[in-house]
Design a protein that fits this description.
alpha/beta, TIM Barrel, 7-stranded parallel beta sheet, two-stranded antiparallel ribbon, 10 helices, about 40% helix, globular, binds NADP nicotinamide-adenine-dinucleotide phosphate
Length: about 280
């Protein structure tokens, strides 16, 4: 397989290990984080360490994550910001789909304003709203692409059938689904994306920290490779597919440094197969 450290979508090339900016908000992904200065430092450090794909959403905070990204990183240079729309926030940990085209358009406009951009690098539909015709949601994404409001379009938490249906209406550059070495429910979507050259962005890549903690079956393998368990989890994802773009999230500089170092680790066949065998 290709060992390329980069992936290109819609003419934009990014390093495959990105950063997820959901955790730079308050408890329940609601309101500001406890330490906004540290969160801005995390964003800057990620970029210093080579990250140039940052994943966010209007609904993270809401708005807080996009605002911190602008404060820390604008002007963005070669850093690509991937945002999303499609969730209403009605309180901490509460998320409700909203895929009405007018609403998605409004959120695109507001993300452009908050991020300080003329065109969004990657605009992802956070969820397909089951109460709105899917073609209408895809059609709005196509309109935004045609109008130049967004440079690329992505989907999130979708099946192969849904990706195929969306592609009849609009070019899909990326798919963002839950995926990590212990949860492979999206294997079919990943395989489809790899075949079709669509970027696959696995969210929950270190299972909210549980795949970054020592004390489990990955310990021995990490120790043998002289790396941490979190780095092992991320290096496994990077090796799993050349279209894979993990976006581990953290609010701590020490953790972003640990996670970014995984970009330079290539697992040998023996370690890769041993991890596979642990979680088959
Ligand atoms: N499309 C979707 O529906 C969807 C859903 C959820 C998330 N996402 C995106 O995916 C990104 C990642 O997902 P996620 O945040 O749920 O999961 P994750 O990246 O697997 O886990 C993040 C959590 O793990 C901890 N962590 C990270 N690195 C660590 C390390 N080296 N050592 C110890 N703990 C570590 C962080 O805590 P500390 O802050 O204490 O480091 C944080 O709470 C999000 O930021 C967001 O951009 C998308």
């Amino acid at each position: 397989m290709s060992e390329s450290t980069t992936f290109t979508f819609a003419g934009q090339t990014v390093n495959r290990l990105g950063f997820g900016a959901m955790r730079i908000t308050g408890e329940g992904i609601w309101g500001p984080p406890k330490d906004p200065d540290e969160c801005r430092a995390v964003l800057r450090r990620a970029v210093e360490l080579g990250v140039n794909l940052i994943d966010t959403a209007d609904s993270y905070g809401p708005y807080i994550s996009e605002e911190l990204i602008r404060e820390a990183l604008h002007p963005y240079g070669d850093v690509k910001i991937a945002t999303k729309a499609g969730f209403l926030r009605i309180g901490p940990d509460a998320w409700r789909e909203c895929g009405r085209p007018d609403y998605l358009r409004q959120e695109c406009e507001m993300s452009l304003r908050r991020l300080g951009q003329e065109s969004i690098d990657l605009f992802q539909l956070h969820r397909i709203d089951p109460s709105v015709a899917a073609e209408d949601q895809f059609g709005l994404l196509r309109d935004l692409l045609d109008e130049g409001k967004v440079r690329a379009v992505g989907l999130s938490e979708v099946s192969v059938e849904q990706i195929v249906a969306a592609r009849k209406v609009v070019t899909i550059s990326t798919v963002q689904n839950l995926y990590n070495l212990t949860n492979r429910q999206s294997e079919a979507a990943l395989e489809y994306c790899q075949r079709e050259g669509i970027g696959f962005i696995p969210w929950y890549p270190v299972a909210a920290g549980s795949l970054a903690r020592s004390g489990g079956p990955l310990d021995a393998l990490a120790h043998k490779n002289n790396i941490t368990v979190g780095q092992l989890s991320l290096a496994w994802l990077l090796r799993r597919s050349p279209v894979m773009m993990p976006i581990p999230g953290t609010s701590k500089v020490a953790h972003v440094e640990e996670n970014c170092a995984a970009a330079d680790i290539t697992l040998n066949d023996e370690t890769f197969d041993a991890i596979d065998a642990l979680h088959d």
